Amino acid sequence: MSGGGIFAVIGPVMVGPSSSHTAGAARLGWAARAILGTEPVEAVFYLHGSFAETGRGHGTDRALLAGVLGLSPDDPRLPEARLLAAEAGLKYAFESRDLGEVHPNTARIILRGRDGQQVAVTGASVGGGEIVITAIDDLPVEFTLHYPTLLTLHQDQPGMVASVSAAIAACSVNIAFMRVFRRERGGEASMVVEMDEPVPADAVAKIAALPGMLRVRQVKAVGTC
Amino acid sequence: MLTFASGGEVLALAQKEGLSLGRLALRWESEQAGETEDLLMARMAERLKVMRAAVERGLRGEDRSPSGLAGGQARLVWEAAANPRVGGATLTRAAARALAVAEVNACMGRIVAAPTAGSCGIVPGVLLTVAEEREKGEEDLVLALFTAGLIGYLIARRANLAGAAGGCQAECGAAASMAAAAAVELAGGSPEQALNAAAISLKGSLGLVCDPVAGLVEVPCIKRNALGAANALTAAEMSLAGVKSAIPFDEVVDAMAAVGRSLPRELKETALGGCAATPTGKAIKKSLCGKPD
């Protein structure tokens, strides 16, 4: 696992033409799919700033779509993403939209899975193929997917951070970064835990069963390709 | 554990440990990633392989980009390298190779971002040519890629590597700086000379704007890769000759970050200024409008 070091600079291996507008876009799509955690059947992409203005010539639309289809940024099929989406039965739409005071290369991706689950992932492509996820649904977050990441939605109440970190410590997994976000006291809150290794499925289940826990997702790292 | 946040700290560490910048970067990455140096060398060798394949494909000159603007120029320069008129064989070959990779990128081919796709030709163009010239083998080349990566990492720590945030100085400028340092180490220079070459190179790119015609990574990006290769070779040669950068590397990077913040948005990958705003640039954009994907 590479934490954004040398291989993030000499890399990624990718299909051109733009690391921010093609490879980063593919990773954002990939990240949205990973956060949804199931096969998407419908995707809506809101493109902001430079993504909206110069995205088409960079294949940003095809790259985002390829990512949502689970393709990596170096997959030679990336230019044919529209065709692949049609084959996979994925419905999609692109729209330019001002997302406010955000990074110029920002997209909001709304995915719906076959099981009806839905998620809205907002993220920025910050250069060299690197991405930062900045919001999930309406909650602001900040993580890079350089690491396996645990995402929670929980009730803002005392002890949540301690219980989650204790469950992670119990499987001898080291936490690299951890942040807590909330909109208001006592409302819905979110935790982003970036770890050196993923935790086993039974630990995720234990965390999901904690009192006050609303939802838990574990997302694998975006990879070092 | 090795830790550093600046070029100055990196240099002190390299001198203390008696390591080249490439070896230091390898050890640091190994510690950070928890993977063996052998595995990381193999992973970087894979990237070198992708770079070589892109050079070969670009020099064949058969591809054209979807816009029709790019392709076939690297081959012209490669043919000229057999009998260069003003630039000498090393410079002309490095320029041809840099063009080749940048053209493959524009044609939606497979490349290694180094540090970005828009600037992907400079590092392979320079390093493959210097290695050929100095008869260096695979291991030295792979280590030189670690040197280049370390310089890029330091620039990213203090500034950034995105045209949308910092202009082309953060892409082709950073790539040339990375290639300059790596070329110095490939030619047997010291870590101090390598960092010094990176500083000299980056000073030459300060203020370079990101102004892609029609928003495509083609005009002027592809030719800027060849020019970035020339910058890197010149900076490396100067440093190896004993020329010192009056401004240290870290301060040049800080200046690059400040300049990037000062650049108006028209000159940061929005395709609204520079070459993109010229009459010809606008005419190209108009002629491409409505062209199917």
Please, could you describe this protein's structure?
The complex is a heterodimer of chains A (225) and B (293). By secondary structure, chain A is α+β, with helices and mostly antiparallel strands. Chain A folds into 2 domains: 6-137, 60s Ribosomal Protein L30, Chain: A (2-Layer Sandwich); 149-219, ACT domain (Alpha-Beta Plaits, 2-Layer Sandwich), CATH 3.30.70.260. Chain A contains 7 helices and 11 strands. Chain A has helices at 6-9, 19-36, 49-54, 60-68, 81-88, 160-170, 201-208, and strands at residues 13-15, 40-47, 91-96, 106-113, 118-127, 130-136, 139-143, 149-155, 175-182, 188-195, 213-219. In chain A, a hairpin with a 2-residue loop joins strand 5 (118-127) and strand 6 (130-136). In chain A, helix 4 (60-68) packs parallel to helix 5. Chain A is globular, with a radius of gyration of 17 Å. By secondary structure, chain B is mainly alpha-helical. Helix content of chain B is 63%, strand content 1%. The mean pLDDT of chain B is 95. The N and C termini of chain B lie far apart (49 Å). Chain B has a single domain, classed as Orthogonal Bundle (2-methylcitrate dehydratase PrpD), CATH 1.10.4100. At the A-B interface, helix 1, strand 1, helix 2 and helix 3 of A face helix 2, helix 3, helix 5, strand 1 and helix 7 of B. Strand 1 of chain A pairs antiparallel with strand 1 of chain B, so a sheet runs across the interface.
Largest binding interface between chains: A-B, 45 and 62 residues
Count of DSSP helices of chain A? 7
The beta-strand count of chain A equals 11
Query: What does the radius of gyration of chain A come to?
Result: 17 Å
Neighbour order of strands in the largest sheet of chain A:
3-2-4-5-6-7
**C-alpha-based Rg of chain B, rounded:** 18 Å
The number of distinct β-strands of chain B equals 1
CATH architecture label name of the largest domain in chain A: 2-Layer Sandwich
Largest sheet of chain B: none
| Mean pLDDT reading of chain A | 92
Class computed from helices, strands and strand pairing of chain A: alpha+beta
- Low-confidence residue ranges of chain B: none
The share of residues in helices of chain A is 25-40%
CATH superfamily descriptor of the largest domain in chain A? D-3-phosphoglycerate dehydrogenase, domain 3
SSE-based structural type of chain B: mainly alpha
Q: Name the beta content range of chain B.
A: under 5%
Examine the coordinates and then state which fold CATH places here, giving the name of the CATH topology of chain B.
2-methylcitrate dehydratase PrpD
**Ranges of chain A with pLDDT <50 over ≥5 residues?**
none
CATH architecture of chain B: Orthogonal Bundle
Helix-strand string of chain A: HEHEHHHEEEEEEHEEHE
